[in-house]
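Notes from the 1:1 (GR / supervisor)

We went over the backlog. Supervisor wanted to see one worked example end to end before approving the batch request, so GR pasted a single chain during the call. The sequence is below; no edits were made to it. Supervisor asked that the structure be written out right there so they could see what the output format looks like.
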Amino acid sequence: MVGNYRAFLAFVEKRVGDRALAEDILQDAFVRGIDRLDQVRDDESVVAWFYRALRNAVVDHFRRGASASRGLDAFVRQLQETDDPGPELRDVACRCVVELAAGLDPRYAEAIRRIDIEGQPVKDYAVEAGITANNAGVRVFRARAALRRQVARACGTCADHGCLDCTCRSPKPTGGELD
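Structure output shown during the call:
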């Protein structure tokens, strides 16, 4: 099996078009294959059996990718269809949130500023940032999660109940928070 590593890698890389991804798929297949060696039939070579396992691993990879893409598409549509909360709610929101967002990773801070504060549609932000709409949706989702953690750290329990009178102490920036 190890002697055929390069041939296995070439087989997977040809199908997925990315060497690093092919290496990941191959390593996962090796790990799963070790546990399943007892499935090799007496009249079958281990190499032929492993090629079949690799073919299945590539198919599984594309199925997971298609499923994830459909989920991201739905998420982006949901973000695009979300109603604007209006100026009243924005005025009530804690002023320190803007400061806390500035302490995030610059890409996250920019996504929060453009989409949540300025109200730019996700698809327009994606074009401006030079990324896909799916990537923009993921970025704003992660940015909001990172901001939630920052607000919870800075505001404690008032973050759970609504921050109407901001007297919280802002935490020191963590150097950019990335997931």
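Supervisor's comment: The chain has two domains: 2-81, 87-161.
Batch request approved.
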